[in-house]
């Protein structure tokens, strides 16, 4: 298990980001989806938690088959997806990712939002930090973004919002910007497989950091599109975009509706902690060539991980992996 805390500041308020987050996630998911690949919304409904109160539960399927290398596609199911479950009690959220094909792999993200510059060292605990959890600050303006995701219109060094008059953020903007908020994310990655755990967990964290950087950049770059929206308007945008995205990737579920009746807490148990996975001292079954089929010369007999600096591997996460993707209750 590898845990890191990410801190991402934005020139917004926590209340503003409540709308902006929903807009950004819906638009981003739609842009990143294509035929047979993308994010399918399975459930989206209110949820009551005895500890956190009213919230929203969302379950999604993230289809990934085309993102796998050719040798991996030969041994995984034809329809391969990651399940995302999110419990949103804004400004506090929990998001979990699991994969039935990789039962020892999971991602757990706990998020809190505050109107500050990322200065709260004990936001996830009342006790002082023990120093074991690495803190990673992400600068949405000046941190380098993967070239394939770069767009001139989303380069915040040169962007200025017409509606809010915020922008043209200079070096050191975090120290001088008003308003400012911080998205605190405690991310736990587990891949408890003998011989692979450390490298895979480190690699996944590298990808998650890129995803968080891109998403928060877009939230501000698109601010003029959503800043005037009400909660009702962004909910309608979310509903329409989710339906369009489901059709775009080739799934045809019933029309999505956001229920107005909260689910009782006993009907769907919320997460208590990061998902647990059993330890194993044996190599995972999916690394072996199936006995029922003839051995393919083109398929490798063992899994070779890429250099940690590269992004093309079995464990390449899509850009729409959520920093949080569940809508907030009204």
Automatic annotation (TrEMBL):
Keyword Transport recorded: yes
KW Transport (keyword) present: yes
Domain Phosphatidylinositol transfer protein N-terminal span(s) in chain numbering: 1-243
Compositional bias segments (type: Polar residues): 260-280, 321-330
Any one GO MF annotation of this record: phosphatidylinositol binding
Residue ranges, annotated region (Disordered): 260-330
Origin: domain of life: Eukaryota
Listed Pfam families: IP_trans
Alphabetic keyword roster: Lipid transport, Lipid-binding, Transport
A GO cellular component annotation in the UniProt record: cytoplasm
InterPro entries documented for this protein: PI_transfer, PI_transfer_N, START-like_dom_sf
Catalytic reaction annotation: a 1,2-diacyl-sn-glycero-3-phospho-(1D-myo-inositol)(in) = a 1,2-diacyl-sn-glycero-3-phospho-(1D-myo-inositol)(out); a 1,2-diacyl-sn-glycero-3-phosphate(in) = a 1,2-diacyl-sn-glycero-3-phosphate(out)
Similarity section: Belongs to the PtdIns transfer protein family. PI transfer class IIB subfamily.
Protein function: Catalyzes the transfer of phosphatidylinositol (PI) and phosphatidic acid (PA) between membranes. Binds PA derived from the phospholipase D signaling pathway and among the cellular PA species, preferably binds to the C16:0/16:1 and C16:1/18:1 PA species.
Name assigned to this protein: Cytoplasmic phosphatidylinositol transfer protein 1
